[in-house]
Design a protein that fits this description.
Elements: H1 4-16, E1 40-46, H2 57-65, E2 70-75, H3 82-98, E3 102-108, H4 116-127, E4 140-145, H5 154-158, E5 166-169, E6 171-172, H6 177-184, E7 190-191, H7 199-216, E8 221-224, E9 229-233, E10 236-239, H8 248-257, E11 261-264, H9 302-316, E12 330-336, E13 366-373, E14 377-383, E15 386-392, E16 395-402, E17 406-412, E18 422-428, E19 439-441
Parallel strand pairs: 1-2, 1-11, 2-3, 3-4, 4-5, 6-7, 7-8, 8-11
Antiparallel strand pairs: 9-10, 12-13, 12-19, 13-16, 14-15, 14-17, 17-18
Helix pairs in contact: 1-4, 7-8
This protein binds 2-acetamido-2-deoxy-beta-D-glucopyranose (4 copies).
Length: about 450
């Protein structure tokens, strides 16, 4: 099965890698290593959605500037794109090499990856790249996203066949930390966010995963997401039980629980409205169904990336509190553009005939304010002309305001970064042409 190209490249890896064990199957994944990891933050990048002109430069520069250590490249989601993904991945690695950035593979086994051989080949192919993400011990990262276990054995069919030591972080949707540890057999879990959980339930789940990590010594990678909204089919139509807490409070909880790694879910999954990267791009046609307008609205999520950099800095420094330099202060807001129960007015969008998204009853009609301050300030929101204010102190603060239709204008009692704070977001309307559950974050 192995082509001469594979063998030739394999040879190059042996030369590049000067560790005495290179080239031999490794079983080091079974050695507890959580204690010796350094905190790092990754962002989940869907290879199914390409940047404009297949140029990854902007994404890499933005992620680097926010302190993100690597993209976890989701390989396989929307498997109809599989014939092209290898090319995209190649461009991605080459660009990352040039920009001194890191990548690792997160094998998405939910939509029909051809098999373990492909996973092994791709992992080996890039293991020697200077852009390959490694942990503090020099092991390459490999991760997965899975609902159910794939039809292969990760240890014998994949990890044993990788020609470099591997830190394998298999994804799980399970909330059962003990069960996950028992099935992972020595690997750290990558825990996804749980749709049915409230924030305090998620907190309990995280606490249990942290305790398992402490008990068995395997690294734990926690997933964190700013928002979830999907409406791609009448049965793929949901929110999570969520509010601002899924992002702000959970970051603070994770700073306390200190997972070994944090993966932001996601950089660019427009289909689930979880992105923290740029939205100004044309995603794959699947997002445009059932009409030619992107249902997630290309809404700006810039603020989530800016917020990320504060949390990343604290996490990497091992701090449990966010501290803010006067030169970095900022205040953000995020909200939906319509009341949660307002169906779209234009019947030419077939999705306007679908029911409300699942868990819509858990979604509040709020504007969420998040301030990162070096010293106290009063933050004001005019929500559709209704005044609101919050006395915010140094560090991170969060405000929740029941919204009033109209313009949303954010100001403060003093200058922020030496300038007047004056952010006006798009107006909230009583009814849009098309149902919109995504948020704008500015
Ligand atoms: C292994 O992956 C590389 C990179 O995508 C590709 O060029 C090569 O053809 C693959 N080899 C096999 C045997 O599939
Ligand atoms: C999470 O749990 C910790 C410890 O019990 C608690 O201090 C914190 O307030 C909780 N956070 C949320 C959002 O419930
Ligand atoms: C904010 O900007 C708006 C529109 O430019 C302007 O009308 C308003 O006076 C500004 N507010 C402050 C506090 O500068
Ligand atoms: C908190 C809550 O009720 N979440 C629900 C969200 O929707 C899923 C799927 O319908 C339910 O299983 C959850 O209970």
């Amino acid at each position: 099965m192995r082509s001469s190209i594979w063998t030739a490249l394999h040879g190059i890896f042996l030369v590049i890698s000067s560790t005495p064990t290179a080239g031999l199957p490794q079983l080091q994944t079974n050695i507890p290593r959580a204690a010796s990891t350094t905190p790092m933050v990754f962002a989940h990048y869907m290879i199914a959605f390409q940047p404009p002109n297949l140029d990854y430069t902007n994404d890499i520069k933005l992620a680097k500037a926010a302190g993100i250590d690597a993209f976890a490249v989701d390989y396989g989601g929307w498997s109809s794109g599989l014939p092209y993904f290898a090319h995209y991945l190649d461009v991605f690695y080459k660009t990352a090499e040039k920009l001194d950035f890191k990548l690792f593979l997160c094998m998405d086994v939910t939509s029909g990856l051809p098999g373990a051989d492909m996973v092994v080949n791709l992992t080996n192919f890039y293991a020697g790249s200077s852009a390959q993400m490694k942990d503090a011990a020099g092991n390459i990262f490999l991760s997965s996203f899975e609902n159910d276990a794939p039809p292969w054995n990760w240890q014998t069919d994949v990890v044993d066949k990788i020609n470099a030591p591997v830190t394998f972080l298999p994804g799980t949707l399970s909330e059962d930390a003990e069960y996950t540890a028992s099935t992972n057999q020595g690997y750290g879990p990558f825990t996804w966010v749980h749709p049915a959980s409230s924030v305090s339930q998620e907190n309990d789940t995280d606490t249990a995963f942290a305790a398992q990590r402490d008990a068995n010594g395997n690294p734990w990678m926690a997933g964190i997401a700013p928002w979830f909204f999907r409406r791609t089919a009448s049965d793929m139509n949901w929110f999570h039980a969520q509010d601002s807490s899924i992002w702000v409070n959970r970051w603070v909880d994770l700073l306390n629980l200190k997972p070994n790694y944090i993966e932001i879910v996601t950089w660019n999954d427009f289909s689930e409205s979880t992105y923290i990267g740029p939205s100004d791009r044309t995603p794959a046609s699947v997002l445009k169904e059932p009409t030619t307008t992107d249902y997630y609205g290309n809404l700006d999520h810039t603020a989530f990336l800016k917020m990320t950099s504060f949390f990343v800095k604290a996490f990497k420094a091992g701090q449990t509190q966010v501290t803010v330099d006067p030169s970095e202060e900022d205040v953000f807001m995020f909200y939906r553009l319509q009341p949660v129960n307002a169906m779209g007015s234009d019947s030419s969008y077939p999705d306007n005939a679908w029911p409300l998204p699942k868990n819509a009853s858990y979604i509040q009609d709020n504007v969420y304010i998040v301030s990162f301050l070096a010293s106290d300030a009063t933050v004001y929101l005019s929500s559709g002309g209704q005044p609101w204010q919050m006395d915010a102190s140094a560090g991170v603060s969060k405000g929740t305001v029941a919204f009033t239709l109209g313009d949303q204008i954010l100001t403060a009692s003093r200058d922020i970064q030496g300038a007047v704070l004056n952010k006006t977001g798009p107006p909230i309307q009583g009814q849009l042409q098309r149902y919109q559950g995504n948020i704008v974050a500015i």
